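Hey, can you fold this?
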Amino acid sequence: MAIISPLPKYSFEEISQKLSNVDDLPTLPNIIDRIIKATEYERTGSKELMQIIANDQSLSAKLLKVANSAFYGLRFKVTTVDAAISTIGFNDVKKMAISAYAAKSFPTNVKTANFVLEKFWIHSIGVANIASIIAEKLGKSDTYQNDIFTGGLLHDIGKLIICQYFPKHFFLIILYTQTLNKEMLEIDETILGLHHGYVGNILSSFWELPIMFSKIICHHHLDKHIFGTQSETDFYLSIINIADTMARRMGIGASGNLRIPQYREDLLEILQIDNFFLEEISNYINEIKFQFDLLV
């Protein structure tokens, strides 16, 4: 099937200009920043985290449902937010809260066929969790794990921007991506002129995100990233790419791609991990992935 589009293509500068004039461009909720700052230190942040969650009935109900799930195997019913935090664990509750509020920050009126917003966020939450678990297994610091979790959560936000502000382009992108079983970034460039990583990078610049997040959002497909001497960027991008591949192979949510990717051997070498390592991670993710559905 030949790719045919009657729509105009745009440059990086043209999309930047268009988005800069949008009045309702999504913003990251201030409450996410509050959660991150409040939880830098568990001893002092637990109380504030509990207050934030307690004031959100929807999130409170979701956390209580997770705490009372068979995964934790408790013999008693958890009925308070404080008890839920203790049961689930401070860091995991923080990740759940950030995931839930990030999903709320974007429009929910997506009407593109074969692109379901809830499944998109389940995929993103899955990538975030897989990435942070890989970082933990590799002995990275708590700060590193938290950063890469956020990077994984936001890695595909460019797709949502295309969907919201270039809906006709996005319709064709989804149609050709799924019909031809291609990677979406290839079709993005053919239809829109710019792939979703670069569109997401434009949004990250408006949000003034740290450069590391911008690099993850822009280059997570590694289409134009050149690996050097195993820099910090190489590690971040390698973990995110492996996490994205695992989430897609496990069918966690749906990012718009139907193609089942293979793990890149060069990335496994950079991270010094093997198939046994990946299997161990995927087995654990299978046990907790029910949680991802509850957060959107």
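Oh, and this one too while you're at it.
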Amino acid sequence: MSKGTLFLLAGCNVAVAFLLQLMVFASIGPGKETDAFVAASTVPQLLLGIVSIALSSTLVPWFSGMRSDQQNEDVWLLLLILGGLFFAVSLFFFATATWWVALLFPGFDVRTEALCADLLRIQMFSLVFSTGNAAISAVCQARSQFRRVEFIVLASLLLAIGFLYVALPEYGVVAAAWASLLLALTQMILLLPILGVPVNIWTSGGDLAKLWRRIKPILAGNAYSKTDILVDRYLVSMGRAGDMSLLGLAQLIFSGVSGVLSKIWGQTAIPGLSIFAKQGDRSGFVRLLRNRLLILLVVPSMLYLALLLLGKPVLSIVNDYGKMTPANMDTLWMLMAYLGGAFVFGCAGTVISGAFYAMADTRTPMRVSVAVFTLFIFVKYEAFVAAGAVGVAIAISVYYAVNAILLACLLPYVIKRRVYAR
């Protein structure tokens, strides 16, 4: 499969995912309702981020080179465990949503709090399916079946857009919450045939016990450091109405583009890095790592420069679309400009952290992330006090830069210790 085909598919998915969100913002306009929608997605995004990173970081190296029947058995058992666990978690948040919203978003008024709680109850159940989707996608990555996953994601997104087109005018942001659940469910239905019929799934218990020992450090670290999204939205909830929506949209745009670049040059490198590490081929490991790291620094930097030069004129073309005003577009462009560091260093960080995971070192990235996150809790607070949402955007950029640079400095020492040249 050529990288050009993967780039085209992943790019289509980013465009369609952005259109899905733009339909909501354009139909309703950035304000309290969209702030409630973005805030309600915070807890599901946080939990999915913790689990999906842990799964992809450990499952791709774990499954690389394994027989497909054994892969299928392991993943079927994982799906049962994850499904049961997150169904229980979803029920808990369903019952306590009002309390969580009041605690996490103190800047909301009573009406916005109530709407956010209702949206949270809907979106939480998407985790039952989306965490399982992350496990199946990891198997596909280990088999280099990247294109198949992208096709499935695209089909699911198109179905969600069709649903939203029909339901959004009448039900507003409530329809958007149901669309997120539909999206996760559809992906699960389309991904399951990859695993075939479940056979002997209970024999995988011993293997999963070993896998769990690898996953634990990442889960422990992410359960703390990935709460950065809570810190960001906690602070911005006390700012102007609509700021949380626009910051979330700016992050969505960058995360979509970085997701494309990471899939093409970051995630596709991990199976190869894992094999080089297992074979003790240090020169091959370093050569592949340097090649992908250079690409994931240069390409995002060029795209960011293009944003600075062309972003504002392009956004001005659509400033009359729906209820997005020129002032909204100006704020969106400014937030995107200040989030550039998160984009560039986030892309590079994908392959840097992936190199640690390929060497079965899950502790070093976790320790660095925890330390940097702890420091930046205070930095983000001071930045918000000084400059509101723009200050938070700047702090997010610096956070990603510091985290990636520290990991890059530690990487040569870990390679020498774990990849034994032969």
